[in-house]
Amino acid sequence: MGMPGRADDHRWSQQHLSHYVEGDLSPHARRRLEHHARDCADCGPGIRAMRALVYSVQGLDGLAGVRAPATIFDRVRAAGASGSPSLHGA
Question: In sequence order, what are the residues at sequence separation of 6 or more whose Cβ sits closer than 8 angstroms to the Cβ of residue 48?
């Protein structure tokens, strides 16, 4: 899990991966996450996985008007923070 003694950065980074990918972080927060992700075996791949998810969800726009719920990223963030493997109750 990241660098020793940096558990706080790791937790923070995990909670902000989707914000990072969506471009919703301040420049300072982006640098913080990028600095952590360079040395973290979880967060670097997490960024790539989140980018793939965002790309896939964006590709759903043309499917007969089917759109992802506006709260999907909030629900994914909450599930990730709680360690839940699924999004039941959707």
Answer: none
Taking only Cα atoms into account, the Rg of the chain, rounded to an integer number of angstroms, comes to 14
Tokens of 28: 């300072």
d(CA 57, CA 23): 16
Q: Report which DSSP code applies to 5.
A: T
- Please choose, from the candidates 52, 55, 26, 50, the residue with its C-alpha nearest in 3D space to the C-alpha of residue 37: 50
Residue pair 19/25 in contact by the 8 Å Cβ criterion: yes
DSSP of 1-40:
--STT-HHHHHHHHHHHHHHHHT-S-HHHHHHHHHHHHH-
- The ranges assigned to domains in the chain are 7-82
In this structure, is the dihedral angle defined by the CA atoms of residues 89, 59, 26 and 30, taken in order, positive or negative? positive
pTM for the full predicted model: 0.59
Q: How confident is the model at residue 84 (pLDDT cuts 50, 70, 90)?
A: low
